[in-house]
Amino acid sequence: MSKAPSIVITADELSRELRTISSSEIVLLMPVGPLTRKVPIASIDFHAATVELRATFGETLSFPATDNAEIRRSLDVTNDRKFTRYELTFPLGEYFALIVAG
Question: How far apart are CA 26 and CA 42, in angstroms?
Fold first, then answer.
């Protein structure tokens, strides 16, 4: 596995990149206390500055695409498969990651 260094991107860049995703393999990783919740995402919708993630089992999760969050993008390569990882950290410490197979 090789991992490129992450770079900081803007909320506009994140929105643009998420709009162009054609992969059906998208996973949301969220810490829940000492655990990490892994949620497969079926689709992504946009409403102004809000991004809605629709889970494969029907749940909808949303977050603001805002420059108040630190947004980092990195590329991982494992066994000839590429994964783009978007990590969002909000001012009060909330964190989650979106991983897109490509």
Answer: 7
